[in-house]
Specification:
alpha+beta; Signal recognition particle alu RNA binding heterodimer, srp9/1; 4 helices; 26% helix
Length: 164
C-alpha cells in the first residue's frame, strides 16, 4: 500500500501525543493500519522507558509520544496533551493512499472507528475519515484525478465543509 506525504527534509515535524504509556501501542497501530515503519525509538536515559517512536508513513515522518502525566492531570499546565476525547482533537491528519476502502478495512480491523465511510467526493477522489484508537482523526483520500484550483474551489470545498 503506497502512502504519499512530506519528507522530514520538508521542515515540518509532527508529534502525535497519546496517553502516557500507550506510545508503543499507538506505534503498533500505525504500523498495521498505514503500513508505517519505525526507524527510531526515543529512550529516557534515566529510566530506560520508550518515551516516543518515530514513525514513517510514506515519505512523512512523525513522532508518537506519550503525553506528560503531570499535564494530563492539571490542564492549566502549558504544553501538549493527548486528545481530550475520541475525535475531539484540534488537528486532522491527512493521508493520500492507493486504496481508501482497503486502508479503512485494515485500520478498523486494527482498532479504528469509521467517522465518514468511504465515498466518492464531488471533485473525483475517493475519501473517508477514521478515528484511531487514541482519538485522532485521519482523513484518507485516493486521488483519482488532479482537480484544478477553480474546479476544487467550486465543488470540493462544499463537501469538505459538510464532512468536517
Amino acid at each position: 500500500m503506497a502512502i504519499h506525504g512530506i519528507t522530514s527534509r520538508d521542515g515540518i515535524g509532527l508529534t502525535i501525543f497519546v496517553p502516557h504509556g500507550r506510545q508503543q501501542e499507538a506505534a503498533a497501530f500505525y504500523l498495521v493500519a498505514f503500513g508505517a515503519t519505525s526507524p527510531r525509538h526515543w529512550i529516557n536515559p534515566r529510566t530506560g522507558e520508550v518515551t516516543g517512536l518515530d514513525i514513517t508513513v510514506g515519505r512523512a515522518t512523525f513522532t508518537v509520544c506519550g503525553a506528560n502525566p503531570k499535564r494530563e492531570a492539571d490542564p492549566s499546565l502549558p504544553g501538549p496533551c493527548a486528545a481530550p476525547a475520541s475525535g475531539r482533537g484540534s488537528t486532522i491528519f491527512q493521508l493520500c493512499v492507493d486504496d481508501v476502502d482497503t486502508t479503512v478495512k485494515i485500520a478498523t480491523a486494527a482498532g479504528a472507528t469509521v467517522r465518514t465511510a468511504p465515498q466518492d467526493a464531488d471533485w473525483g477522489d475517493r475519501v473517508a475519515t477514521i478515528i484511531d484508537p487514541f482519538g485522532h482523526i485521519w482523513a484518507l483520500a485516493t486521488i483519482n484525478r488532479e482537480a484544478s484550483v477553480d474546479d476544487f474551489s467550486t465543488r470540493g470545498n462544499i463537501q469538505l465543509v459538510e464532512a468536517a
